[in-house]
Design goal:
CATH superfamily of the largest domain: Spore Coat Polysaccharide Biosynthesis Protein SpsA, Chain A
Radius of gyration: 21 Å
CATH topology of the largest domain: Spore Coat Polysaccharide Biosynthesis Protein SpsA, Chain A
Helix content: 25-40%
Structural class: alpha/beta
Number of helices: 12
């Protein structure tokens, strides 16, 4: 009996500087039944030529390259590449990381009955030098089937995930306001479970000039978003999660959303604070903070939008 087909879904955009290392790690995978599906989002550098080089060189591998007619942006581009995959399982792939040669095989050996599996990763810098830190050093990585863990934060990175194709039947369409990996993690816990594999299987490149900078090396950029902007962004995300058609906890989602919306018109929001405090073990699971730090974080939800406006305008 042959192994299930796994599709590696790779999105590219002006990635020629790092793409060769990634492609070398993909063609070196030990898993026996793979296809590599690439969608390029209108690169202006040598990315597409490099992709064609690999399709010509590795004729025994199934590598298909598609080039968009217009630039879609990375969220829509991932949605498109997933739609072109034929595999029973799909592994998302960034253009500038480096995969362990055993990554796909190990993930397939461990996915079990879970809808989605993801692993730990090691951060490297632009030059490929280790930053001596893992994702699990800065986030608690969740295994389980409770989607409420993902209402306020995400610990599942796209580059680290492999999921069953059937998940896309329940993922609805990707939302531009929510990164695709966060949305998929939320869908997976509503329709099944996710499993964190405590193995480092990717060298995850961090660029100081892009949004993939999980380590917040560019902290000065984040100061531009004030407390009001954060509140508004949280509200948009909660609305989208609450509209998810296969919600496992619709009553809870609607309650917390309702309290967040009331917060917009209020000076104080004690009810929201108390609801989140009672459910802090779930809602704040991903945060790697002390109990005191988490309590201080929850206190912020006690202040209403009107009070925040008053202090921000002073």
């Amino acid at each position: 009996m042959s192994a299930p087909l796994v599709s590696i879904a790779l999105c590219t955009y002006n990635g020629a500087n790092y793409l060769r290392q990634q492609l070398d790690s993909l063609v070196a995978q030990t898993y026996s039944n793979l296809e590599i599906v690439v969608v390029d989002d209108r690169s202006s550098d040598k990315t597409v030529a490099l992709l064609r080089e690999y399709t010509d060189r590795y004729i025994n591998l199934t590598i298909s390259v598609h080039v968009n007619e217009i630039n879609l942006g990375y969220i829509r581009n991932f949605e498109k590449v997933i739609s072109l995959c034929s595999g029973d399982y799909i592994a998302l792939c960034d253009q500038d990381d480096i995969w362990d040669s055993e990554k796909v095989r190990i993930m397939m050996d461990n996915i079990g009955d879970n809808m989605l599996i993801y692993h730990d990763s090691e951060f490297i810098d632009d030059e490929g030098i280790s930053l001596n830190k893992r994702i699990s050093d800065i986030r608690n990585c969740y295994s389980g089937d409770d989607p409420r863990v993902f209402l306020f934060e995400n610990c599942v990175s796209g580059h680290a995930m492999l999921f069953r194709r059937e998940l896309m039947n329940y993922a609805d369409s990707f939302k531009p306001e929510i990164v695709h990996d966060w949305w998929l993690a939320y869908a997976a816990t509503n329709m099944g479970s996710v499993f964190f594999l405590d193995h480092v299987l990717v060298q995850y490149r961090q660029h100081r000039s892009t949004s993939t900078d999980i380590l917040r090396q560019k902290k000065h950029l984040f100061k531009k978003e004030g407390s009001i902007e954060k509140l508004e962004r949280q509200l948009v995300i909660l609305r989208l999660f609450s509209k998810y058609p296969f919600n496992k906890y619709p009553a809870f989602n609607n309650k917390i959303l309702g309290l967040m919306e009331r917060r917009i018109k209020s000076w104080f929001s004690f009810s929201l604070f108390w609801l989140m405090f009672k459910n802090r073990k779930v809602l704040l699971y991903i945060q790697q903070k002390s109990a005191l730090s988490k309590f201080n974080f929850l206190l912020k939800f006690m202040w209403g939008y009107r009070l925040k406006r008053l202090f921000q305008s002073v």
